[in-house]
Structures are given as structure tokens and as C-alpha cells.
Structure prediction request, 387 residues.
Amino acid sequence: MRNVLRKILIVLKWVGIVLASIIVLFFLVRSIGRMVNNITPKGGINETMYVDVNGQEMWINIYGQDKNNPVLLFLHGGPGYSSSFADYKLLRKLSEDYTVVNWDQRSCGKTWLKNQDDTTPITLELMRSDIDVMTDYILEYLDKDKLTVMGISWGSFYALDFAYNHPEKTECCIGLSQALGYYEGEPEYMYSSFVMQAEYLKVADFVSDGDKELAQKIDTDELVQFLVEASLYGHSDRGGEGKSIFFQLKNKYKKELSAYMHEHGETDLIKDCDENMIAAALFCPYYNIVELYKANLVYSDECYNGLVREMHTPGEDNCVLDRKEYQCPVYFFLAEDDLSCNPKMAEEYLNSITAPEKGIGYTTGGHEDTLLHSDELVKFIHENVLK
Prediction:
């Protein structure tokens, strides 16, 4: 018996040694990778700081290979989601041509980590003021008169809105997966992926005959109205039995539907990116392990509910469709199968405006692919914006 216990203890000892060695090796490799990614280019800039913006300390990183380059401010999407823990790897591809400022907006990313107890109500007016204050700070800090503003998704509306209202500060506007704000049919379009899934459940080979019969009871119009109302107001009485059936089947055939939607407009953040996003996050010089965990664990629209209602209900300031004259160049880079922001509407809008210069480009795939296909984005900017 003693021999058995001794052997077990020896095995446990070596298991502990191996695990400890793996952990030490992991943090050693991560530390080296972070140091490499935190190197400042010769003659360039790599600075992180917190800026006081309307009462909240907001995080930015400034990275570029030549301090004399023009400045580009990147506005992430959401609202309420920053991926600065990984997208820095993609944005650095622009650093030969721009000094890139990556900003975690209000209640996002490292800004949220710094201000977790801040309960300031978030409105369109406040968000507009935030970018105005941040832009003034960046221009003064980097001794520039104007900057290029580039946004994706929600950030693209924010960027276009700023370019229209502040041409004196805007050198150029680049919209990725361009959002136009509220217009008739826009909230419904945002849930078009659910309609596609509902219709596919009615005919897909992997769905049993009995479940196909159930799927016939799904009224897609009612389903979309339920989703829109639930998003805006937190509840909805629409949908009835068909709504319940949809979510039941969606959960049952989750894997198959996911594969189908990836082929029809939904983005896979890992597979679709031309960089290794896991490695980018792992070796991110700006986030420690705890911050990485928290930033990815907490993603909620709760603090943005008031803003979401402002965005998706008729209003004078939450739509750009009536704005036809821009005093700076405007460029859109769109995804062909974007199920969140309608690329056809964006192209029609760009054709309708006047600007000193304007241009449009497309990539394949879904909503986030305009940034994930970063090599194509760089090519588009070189061939259109920088020429």
C-alpha cells in the first residue's frame, strides 16, 4: 500500500512540475512577444495614455513609423465594443502612411476597465462631444491641423457625422461597413440573418421532417418585429408560437446554422482574418491577462440602451441621408454580404453626395471583414485615398 501511495505522489509531483513549467514557459513567451510588439519604430511613435474626455479617462494608443505622417483616428464599432486587444495588429499595417490613433471609446475596452463605476447616461450628443474633445486633444498633441477619421460599423456613422459637422478638422473620411444611421427599414435589415436562418430551417436537409413542419409556423415578419422591439425596449409581445419555435430550432441546429451563415454573410473572427487574431491578443502589449479576460467577458448593451433607442427611432440627428455636400474626401470600403449595414444603401448614398474626392471598394464576406481583410483595406487606401 505504501509503495502505491509513494508512486502516486511521485506521479503527482511530476505532473505539478510539468504544469508549472508550462505556465512559466507561457508567461515567458508572452512577455517576449509583448516586448517585441511594444518596440517603438525608429523615428516613429508608440505611446499609450489616458485622456480626460467629458469627465471620463479614455485610453488611446498612438502608433506610427514616421511622426511627420498624417494622422488617422480609428473609431471602433458597437456601440459598446472595442477589439483594441487584437485589432492593433491590423491597424499597424497603415502605420507606414499614417500615425494611427486607436481609441477605446466611452465604456469600451481599457476605457471601461478604467471607469467601471461610471454610470453617465450615454447619448448621441455625448458621443459627438467625445470625438470632438478627443480630436482637439490629438491635433494639439501631434501638432496637426487636420486628421483622417476612419470608422467601422457604428464607428463609421460616427466618423461620417464628424466629417460633415467639422470639415475644418477633417482631412478625409473612410467608412468601413458604412452605417447611415436610422432610415426606414434599417432596424429590420439588421436582423436579416435571422430571416435567412428561419427560411433555411424550412428546407435544409439536416432538419428532420417533423421539425420542418414546425418551422413552417415561423412568421418571419413577426419574428423581425419581435427582435426590433426587444432590442429597443427590452421586451416584446410579438411572435407567439412561431417565435418560440424559431429559437428552439435555432438552438437545436446551432452548429449547422452557424456553418450555413458563415457561407452567407456572417463573419468568423478567427477564420476570416488575414492575421492570427489569437496570437495578436496573446501578445498584445497593451493588455495584461486579467484585462484581456475582463474585456472579452463583459460585452453588454445595457449601458447603451438609451443610445440604441436614439439610433433606431426617427430623429433629426441620427441619419445622414439628407446630408449631400461634404467638404472633405469621402471613401467607403464595404463587404458584399454585410448583414448588419446594407452595402447597397451605402453605395447609393455615396453616389448621391458631392465631395472633393470620393470612392468605393468592396471585399468579400460579412460585416467585420472590411477590417479583418486588412491587406485588401491597405490596398484600397493606397489605390484610392493616397493615390
Remarks:
- The first strand starts at residue 45 and ends at 53.
- The mean pLDDT is 91.
- The CA atoms of residues 269 and 372 lie 7 Å apart.
